[in-house]
Write a structure and sequence with these properties.
By secondary structure, this protein is α+β, with helices and mostly antiparallel strands. It has one helix and nine strands; from the N terminus they run αβββββββββ. The longest helix has 27 residues.
Length: 141
C-alpha cells in the first residue's frame, strides 16, 4: 500500500513538473516552436550543386532539428544518393531564425519506377518534413 502511494505521488509530481517546465518555457518566449514555410526555388542548371532551396522561419535558438524528404504520398522516405540535403540557420529577429534547406538532386540515380519524378513533364514532387526537438528537457522514471 505504501509503495503504491509513493508511486502515485511520484507520477503526479512528474506530471506537475512537466507542466511547469512547459509553462515556463512558453512564458519565457525563448522556446518558440514556430515552423513557417517561406519560399522555395529551383535551379537545375548544369554545375549547380543546390538544385532546390527552401526557407523556413523557425523559433529562435532551435539548434536541434531534422529535415527529411518523402515521396508525393509523404510516406516513403527519399535519401542519398538521390537527394543530398544541406542546412544552415541564420538569425532573423528576436523571435525567429531562418532555416535554409539546400537540396542537390542526382537525376541519374533516380530509380525507373518512382512516385516523385515524371521524366515526361520534368516535374519533381516531394514532401518535406521539418522537425524540431529540445535538448533541455528530459524526464526519467
Amino acid at each position: 500500500y505504501l509503495l503504491n502511494r509513493i508511486m502515485m505521488v511520484s507520477s503526479i509530481f512528474k506530471s506537475f513538473a512537466m507542466g511547469a517546465v512547459l509553462f515556463a518555457s512558453h512564458a519565457s518566449g525563448q522556446n518558440n516552436w514556430d515552423i513557417n514555410f517561406l519560399t522555395a526555388t529551383a535551379d537545375f542548371e548544369n554545375g549547380n550543386t543546390n538544385d532546390i532551396k527552401m526557407d523556413y522561419e523557425i523559433g529562435t535558438a532551435r539548434s536541434s532539428y531534422t529535415v527529411e524528404l518523402f515521396d508525393t504520398s509523404c510516406t516513403q522516405a527519399i535519401s542519398a544518393p538521390i537527394f543530398e540535403i544541406g542546412t544552415s540557420i541564420t538569425a532573423k529577429d528576436d523571435n525567429h531564425d531562418t532555416l535554409e534547406i539546400l537540396v542537390n538532386v542526382d537525376l541519374a540515380q533516380l530509380p525507373s519506377q518512382n512516385t516523385f519524378y515524371d521524366p515526361l513533364s520534368g516535374k519533381l514532387s516531394f514532401c518535406t518534413k521539418v522537425q524540431m526537438s529540445s535538448l533541455h528537457c528530459s524526464l526519467h522514471s
